[in-house]
Specification:
single chain; Aminoglycoside 3'-phosphotransferase, Chain: A, domain 2; 2 domains; 5-stranded antiparallel β-sheet; 12 helices
Length: 353
């Protein structure tokens, strides 16, 4: 969820994307003839990327244009980071297949990659949680040789999330638009998290590092029910870290409620976690994943609330170009003190610092 709505519009950028393909004539796409006619249409836009569906006869693929970075690197480095991650994942079949990388910024001032097009629908929390758990277990168990591991290391997992939250919530805390009562409560949660983050020593003393996606919102999954396939399609900011991050981010209310009205019950959490454990070969990870994930949950909740508090202020100020009533409704819910108390009071009561 992090970031600002970009100044670029995917629809106004469409002619430039088409011109790029005509001029750059990328190679590596199966059954693609560079000089033949093709069709291109907008597929989807995120805070830092635009995706276009390219079709030529029976051949279909995705042109991905990266317009920014959430990991603090250049555009050239960002698109290479994504491409190399897709290459690591390719043998496992959990993500799109990468076809080509263009990080020259020669034809467009943005990073470009081509990847396979996956048909399907977004994940449904009411019936797909076990499938998602199984897929996460698959990529969490991919062995990556040190010489091929380009991923940023998650050295201090809770501190990393906490510091990101501090930067985002500061926009709200320092705004004259902030509600005084909510500001005071957010400061209380911030101070609690500042102490609770030291529990990350658990991960440092008992590391179990692997590829983690970090952004497992339901809209980042593509499920083809007819073919019986599931893929995780957005790999903007993966890390080399503890698998609990993905499980926690997937199940916390701030993730599930963002695009749906679903809140995972304790029974649903058990089904999901049991499915994950049943798909994990290492008995030690099976025995410890519940505790690893439990420690993460309040920090992933704080991440969602902090982003929404920041975005709510930006929305009020007119920084967001896209005025979407549903988005504003959710932003308002995430800065409602009763909703946020419902998230954090149990954590602070049961885990005093």
């Amino acid at each position: 969820m992090e970031g600002l709505v970009p100044d670029l519009s995917i629809h106004s950028f469409l002619p430039k994307a088409k011109a790029y393909i005509q001029q750059a004539q990328p190679v590596g796409v199966p059954n693609w003839t560079p000089n033949n006619d093709f069709m291109i249409q907008a597929l989807g836009q995120g805070e830092y990327n635009m995706n276009f569906l390219v079709q030529q006869g029976q051949t279909a693929w995705v042109l991905r244009v990266n317009t920014g970075s959430q990991i603090g690197v250049s555009l050239s480095e960002q698109i290479a980071y994504e491409y190399n991650t897709l290459k690591l994942l390719s043998p496992s079949g959990v993500a799109p297949i990468p076809y080509f990388l263009d990080n020259s910024l020669k034809f467009l001032p943005y990073g470009i990659l081509g990847m396979s097009y996956l048909r399907g629908e977004k994940l449904d929390y009411t019936r797909d949680n076990e499938k998602a758990a199984n897929l996460m277990a698959r990529y969490h168990q991919i062995e990556v040789p040190d010489e091929l591991n380009h991923l940023i290391r998650e050295e201090k997992p809770l501190t990393l999330t906490y510091q990101r939250c501090l930067r985002m919530m500061a926009v709200y805390l320092e705004s004259d638009l902030a509600d005084p009562d909510f500001r005071d409560y957010l400061i209380e949660v911030r101070d609690w998290a500042g102490e609770a983050r030291h529990r990350e020593i658990y991960y440092q003393q008992d590391p179990w590092n692997c590829i983690i996606n970090t952004e497992v919102n339901n809209t980042n999954w593509i499920l083809n029910r007819k073919a019986g396939t599931l893929h995780l399609v957005d790999w903007e900011k993966p890390l080399w870290g503890d698998p609990s991050q993905d499980l926690s981010h997937f199940r916390v209310p701030t993730t599930t409620l963002w695009k749906t009205d679903y809140r995972m019950s304790e029974a649903d959490k058990k089904v999901m976690m049991d499915a994950y454990k049943n798909a994990i070969a290492d008995p030690h990870l099976r025995d410890t994943i519940e505790e690893r994930t439990r420690l993460r949950d309040p920090f992933n909740c704080l991440r969602g609330v902090s982003w929404c508090a920041m975005a709510w202020v930006q929305y009020q100020r007119g920084d967001h170009l896209l005025k979407n009533p549903d988005t504003y409704r959710k932003l308002s819910m995430y800065v409602d003190i009763d909703f946020v108390r419902g998230l954090f009071d149990p954590y602070m009561k049961n885990n005093p610092v």
